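for the writeup, i need someone to sanity check this before i put it in the appendix. the sequnce is what the collaborator sent (i think, or maybe the updated version? ugh). structure was predicted straight from it, no edits. if anything looks off just tell me and ill rerun, i have time this weekend
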Amino acid sequence: MTHRFFVVLFAILLGTSSFAQAPLSAQSAKQKPAQFSGTIRLRLPPRLYAVPGIEMNVYFDNICLTVTPLNVVFDAVCAKGKQQVERWTFVPTEQDVGTFPFAVEVRDELNRIIARAESVLEVVPEKAGGGMPVSVLTVGDSLTHAAVYPAHLLELCKADANPQITLVGHVPGAKNPNVRIEGYGGWTARRFATFYKVEERQSGPEDWKTWNSSSSPFLYADGSGKSGLDFARYCREFNGGKGLDFVTFLLGCNDNFGANDETIEASIDTMFKYYDMLVEMVHQVRKDTKIGMLLLVPPSGTQDGFGANYKCGQTRWQYKRNQHRVVERTMEKYGKREKDNIFLIPSNVNLDCLHNYSSSKVQWNSETKEEGSRLNNGVHPSAEGYRQIGDTIFCWIKAQLATVPVSGK
């Protein structure tokens, strides 16, 4: 007998070989530990909203922070939907209405659970809020500026079973005057809360291009010429003097784009300072306005989009680290605030960052005529991706109308 044989035999007798460990690994796999984010910083929004006929997804790479998501195993634990390679996906029917526990476990190559997060899936009736008139203001940067997800909200609400939404704000395109937003490329929470130039406030509500480079639409000068947030006046000019039923905020991209691991916390602190001013501004007019804080959406799925837009000026990985930290802290700060009419909208989970960002056919290199598809935008989804964001907002609005009908004051 060889020396190697005795080593293996000795290990088996001690119960330290891989054969002896197998039952222990199987036993560990059955355990359900409490939630923990692990080294990959797994995070799920506390609530996922769904409506019959609308696809809802949780893309696994969007809920964690790892360079190589294919090196771990994601396991979606839910009585509804199905798990695919890159996502959990679900198109509910009316028979699925209800609330269901939802969890994602992440395992390593030894089948050990290295992270676990929990949520609740809420499927609301198809006719929730049917025919109810509601006003919605969407506030944001270039992702709102594109006006695709607000337009998608209007499209979804054409059916009798859905609320009749009136969008409030400026008109970004004459072709569809019903699409109204407060979304401007490059803007931040700070700019919405503080930026005012009296000489540029000569245009009316329809002159969106001028307002895009002008002062905040929520800032007005008082009798002494000093500017301040005046949402009551904004509502008089844009919503017939009534407070809004719903206000959504999708900010954070420009606020934190230039941050790194050393500066991201201070950067988010600054953003929250002005976010709080905007939230207070809305609730000073109407306490029961439901404010939806959209969780900042992840970037495109590869570095190609960042190379196309920023050359060597920014990496996807650094932006993803910043974005994920914004999501973590937004959940910590604004989560569990429903009694204050502040809600988290899980827009970050329901976005296909590989297929619903724009791409182009290009040669793989100069020495071949063979072409392939490369993503060509780092932070702006394609129209399909924007519609996924719109789906998420729509499901959230339906969920609110299913439980607490808006008063329409």
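The first helix runs from residue 3 to 14. The chain has two domains: 29-122, 127-403.
thx in advance!!
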